[in-house]
Amino acid sequence: MTENKEESSCDGQCSSCPSAANCNDPQKAASGIQSKVQMNVKNVILVLSGKGGVGKSTVATNLAMALSNKGYNTGLADLDIHGPNIPKMLGIEDQKLGSYDGKTIEPVKVSGKLGVVSMAFLLPDTSSPVVWRGAMKNTAIKQFLEDVNWGELDYLVVDLPPGTGDEALSVAQLAPNIAGAVIVTTPQDVAILDSSKSVKFIEKLGLKVLGIIENMSGLVCPHCGDVIDLFGRGGGEKAAKELNVPYLGSIPIDPDMRIAGDEGKPFILKRDGSEQNKVTWQHVDEVMENILKQIDN
Ligand SMILES: Nc1ncnc2c1ncn2[C@@H]1O[C@H](COP(=O)(O)OP(=O)(O)OP(=O)(O)O)[C@@H](O)[C@H]1O
């Protein structure tokens, strides 16, 4: 009842609306409140999911690394303010953000082609929590986009926390040239249900869904090569069909993928031409190519 009443009295003027902060319509909440920041980037790629722990940071890290290895100037913005894991996955968790002029923030450089920002670089230690409300997170995100010396970026990959909260809304409002969003899911029904929400959220914001990735899709037994459907398989593709968005492919559960994350050496860097992980490599390559194809479309 209340929701209908609010909807009928909405005049679309979010900046003067007393309920803007609690508005449950992302398009209204995101419209007219903030303008885009000035930054020199050709394509911003958002990586999000409805559920936690499905592999967003793993996908974002490997995607950014793959793009920079192809020669693109790439930025990786870890906007998971409360749970920043990207530095750990890149083995750079001891680094801090610096500044030469006291105004512009220098990203942590992983290579000449890849710079990273993360809340983790600002915390005193890895166990310190960030206790911030939406407005503070919004300010931090604005600074991570606008005040960082990114240079001229071909791609900025943005890793977001699970769900459709403040961080996702802020970056959708603030970032220029958003090519679209990659939605990561696992194959179970609950994860698929939550990723449908992510798809609808992105569409409501008027952004492009680049597609759905099904991560942790079956486990290839290292002994016999058989596939064990630990969390099931095919749910991501089914969801993509039902939601009428592209399916970007699947990535199997691979213990080496987890080890790569824990060791701070992204999986994508560990290709050694051996037969080991061949199946996983094929899947990862296909997913990365499909993302780029969607951006080129
Ligand atoms: N395909 C995979 N095979 C094996 N392990 C994986 C795979 N994908 C991700 N992992 C591991 O699963 C864990 C969770 O992954 P990750 O941190 O990328 O998820 P997330 O969605 O970003 O999590 P959060 O919601 O907490 O931000 C990590 O330890 C990661 O190394």
Q: Which regions have little confidence, pLDDT < 50, spanning 5+ residues?
A: 1-8
What's the tally of helices?
Answer: 10
Number of individual domains? 1
What series of H and E elements makes up the topology?
A: HHEHEHEEHEHEHEEHEHH
Task: Give a list of the ligands.
Answer: adenosine-5'-triphosphate
Keywords: ATP-binding, Hydrolase, Iron, Iron-sulfur, Metal-binding, Nucleotide-binding
Protein name: Iron-sulfur cluster carrier protein
Subunit structure: Homodimer.
GO cellular component, one term: cytosol
Structure notes:
- InterPro entries: Mrp-like_CS, Mrp/NBP35_ATP-bd, P-loop_NTPase, YlxH/NBP35.
- GO terms for molecular function: ATP binding; ATP hydrolysis activity; ATP-dependent FeS chaperone activity; iron-sulfur cluster binding; metal ion binding.
- Homodimer.
- Binds and transfers iron-sulfur (Fe-S) clusters to target apoproteins. Can hydrolyze ATP.
- The protein has 297 residues and is of the alpha/beta class.
- The protein has a single domain, classed as 3-Layer(aba) Sandwich (Rossmann fold).
- It is built from ten helices and nine strands.
- Strands 1, 2, 3, 4, 5, 6, 7, 8 and 9 form a nine-stranded mixed sheet that branches.
- The longest helix has 19 residues, at 278-296.
- Adenosine-5'-triphosphate binds next to helix 3, strand 7, strand 9 and helix 9.
Features:
single chain; 297 residues; alpha/beta; Rossmann fold; nine-stranded mixed beta sheet; 10 helices; 36% helix; binds adenosine-5'-triphosphate
What is the topological layout?
Blueprint: H1 2-9, H2 26-30, E1 41-48, H3 56-69, E2 74-78, H4 86-90, E3 108-111, E4 114-118, H5 134-146, E5 153-159, H6 166-174, E6 178-185, H7 189-204, E7 209-220, E8 227-228, H8 235-243, E9 247-253, H9 255-263, H10 278-296
Helix pairs in contact: 5-6, 7-8
The structure holds adenosine-5'-triphosphate.
